[in-house]
Structure formats: structure tokens, C-alpha cells
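Subject: sequence -> C-alpha cells, single chain

Hey, anyone have a minute? Need the predicted structure for the following. Not urgent.
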Amino acid sequence: MTACVPSDALGRRVLCGTEYATVRYVGSVPPTAGIWLGVEWDDPQRGKHDGTYEGTQYFRCRHPRGGSFIRPNKANFGVDFLTAVKDRYGLNDQQDVQHGTETTLVFGKKTVEFVGMDSIAEQQRQDQLNQLVDISVRECAVSHAGQKEEISRTCANIRNINLSKNLLSSWETVTAIASQVQNLETLNISENKITFPSTSTYVSSVFSKLRILALNQTEITWTEVLLCAPGWPALEELYLTSNNITVLERPDNVLQTLKSLDLSDNRLLDGNQLHLIAHLPRLEQLILRNAGLTSIHFPDAGFGCKTKMFPSLKRLAINDNKISEWSSINELDKLPSLRSLQCHNNPFTDTEKNPETLRQLIIAKISQLEVLNKSEILPAERKGAELDYRKIFGNDWLAAGGNWNPEKNKPSEEFLAAHPRYPALCLKYGAPEEGELKGRQPLTLKNQLLTLTIKCPEKPEQKPVEKKLPESMTIQRVKGLLYRLLNIPGSELKLSYKSSKLEGREVELDNDLKPLQFYSIENGDCVLVRW
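Reply:
Had a minute. Here:
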């Protein structure tokens, strides 16, 4: 190897200008003279070939045009951790040279020399480094730990480190840095293409206090996660986005302290993969955005029962997936602790064009939900959603064998599969009365929309809001909408309306179960909101 190429260059990460690459070959490339580095670019558009030159395969690339040969002097192999910290926080020796460390002072014609100024500046730098608790050296070309024990001597109080998008190439390098940080709690090494252990490794105490670990875009597999996990005994949050993880395995005796797991932007093989991580006892948050999910199912529990899976799960995000059936939303009611759900951009949401109706359906189907798509569900909104759901599907319930007489009430398995909460809603509010179900419009029919002006007389500074609402919308649901639209605290709303036809007279909207059309509200009327 030449002097400018590290002895361990093969497999190392390098920076060439602003482009990142991995060294796949070091050596000669006849007929040219000298040493070349064969690199595989992170951005294959930067490359020229697949590692083949003049018919000889020098290295291999994932992309047919992802490789190039560059001279060693074009490659930046990076700096050690402490050098990057000093550069980032302006605490290196060069800073003093640049800014001028004055060691003499002139009084008239007399020059006085200050002895030991360099050592004072060095001590000040040392004190500043020792005070650092949170360190970010993102995009600082960090590639190695540096001299042994130098970090622990210099930065004794570090607790949180951001090492994302650097030149780290192996888990051993990460461990070498972390081993010198005694109280490390948060570590972000995302956007580093890292080689992880492929077999069980010695479990040290390096990460014994680590609570938060981000490994996004590191190409780690779930198998490698489980091999490293014995070294994370206190881990609470784990971020694994964009790693091409397709298959999960059950974590036996590891990750038992985990409270939050993010597997977004991976391509899970199917929804059954979730069953393999369903028994993490403390998992409270699971983020699965754009994870390729087509369905969710908890086969251990029947209609109206709770699953033993995900016993502590409170918050679930399944945005941007391929879930097309409402049955998956029904399944979420089986989760015993679920309180918050995000589910935007799934095909099942296309079945209902009115976003308010869509929201009400989800609320009615999941009994204990408190927050939907980051918006709080107030008691009035829940009551309205459940009452409306009970009426909307009342005729289907009757047709499937439902009956007001408890002894004859035997709805079919098909109806219960589609509406597992319906029996519970009938117990809560009573079965829908015959009069409620007459002339009920099918949910899929587009209702006539009314354009109404919403005003708050008690808050004249608040500008009126124009809103289009279906004339079949119940007053209860209108109230639920207004709680969120106007950001009103959870007090009881009182609604009334004014119409040009009523010559200034105000009509109270006093029956929560009646639709807007019951009150003969028309386009252009004004709804007044008080509380």
C-alpha cells in the first residue's frame, strides 16, 4: 500500500467532494501506472461501470453503473471523533492560531510578555470540552475513534451523540467510540453504511445505559439487530427506518425494555411479521409508515375480545400502507391498550369520500381510541360517531338476523365479522328504534351538501368560518366537528342558527340526534356557536 492509503482501506467509507462511497478495491489497474481505489458510490448515477475495466472484473457493485476508479488523493478517509468535535465546536488548536492568541502587550515603549498563555488557552478548551453533554458531529466525516481513552479523558460528561451521515463503516468503530463514553444515553448513527456482526458477540457493558438508538439507513437486518441487542439492556427507543427489512424474528430475552419501535419505510413481507414482535412486554409505540402492510390480523381473539398481542401498545402509526379492507380497522379494536392511531393514505380510506364520515367510522369501530390522525377525540364526538354508526347499519343488522327481542337477536357471523362492535353499541345505547331506521340513506350515497357560515358570538375577534356539511349530518356530529375546527375546550356546546327567511329570529339546534335537514337549514344560513 502507498503512504496515502490506510492499511485497512478495503471496505472503508470515503468522501469524494460531496459524494459518499465504499472502497471495494485497492491496487493497480493495468495498463495505467500507480495505485487506484475502486469505489462503489452511494448514488449510482455518479458511477461509470460495475467494477469491470478492459474485460477484467476488479470488484462488484449492486448497480451495473455504480462503480468508478479514483486516485487515493481524491478520497477523504475521514477524521477521528475528537478532531470532529473540536472542529464543530471551534475548540481546536488552529482556531487560536486563526484568531491570534496574544502573548505580549505593549505599554508605551515597554513590551510585557505573558508567560503561560498557551497553557491557559488549552485549559479553557479542555474545560469547554468537559462541559459538553449533547454532541452533534453530523456530516463531519468521522471515520474512527482516535487514540485510546482520549475521548473519555477529554469529554467526560457526554450523554447524547449524533454521529449521523459520517464515514463509519463498522459496528466495531461505533463500539470503540461508545466505550469511552461512560454515561451514553442517546446515540444516532443513521445514514452510515455499517457492517454489523453476523454472529453472536461478546456482551460488554459499553451500551449499558443507552436508552435511545437510531439506526436509520444503515442497511442493518433484523437478524443483526437481535445479535447486537443483548448489548442494549436498557434500550427504550429503537429507530430502524429505510433498511430494507422484510422479515422479522421473535426477540427472545432481548429488547424487553423497548417502549418505542420505528420500522417505517421498510418492506415487511406481510402483516403476519408483526406477530413475531407482538410479545414485547413494554412496547407502547409502534411506527409502521410505508411498511408495505396489506392487512392486520390478531387470530388469537374473536369478535369483541381483546388480543394478548401487544399488551402495552398505546400509539400505532400505519400511514401510507396498502391496507384495503375495513376488517383490519376492526382488528385494531382487539388491542387492549390502543389510544392513538394514525392511518392516513391507505386504500380503505378511499371507500368513503367524506373525510368527516370516514373519521366517524374509525372512531366507532375502535372503542378506546382517544386520538385519531393527531386530532383528539372528545366525548361528544365519540358519542355522535357511535350513535350514527348504530343507525347507519341498523337495517343491515335487522337483515342479518338482528332483533329488538334479545331472545331472537342472532345476527349472522358475516355481519359480526363486518361490524364486531355493533352488539356492544346496542348494549351501550339500546338497539336502534324502528323509526330511526326508516328512510335511512345508504352510507355510500352522496348527501346534499349545505354551505354554512359558523360564528362565535362570544368571541367576536374570531373570524367566521365557511363550511360545507352534509344535510344528513346529526347535530351531535356537527358539535364534534366544531370542537376540533374551533379548538374549543371540552365544554358543552350550544348551537343555534339564523336564516334570512326568519327575519333575525334564532332557532336552537337542541336535539343531538336530529340531522341538519330536520331544522330546515338551507345554504347560506349562519350557525351560532356558544359554550
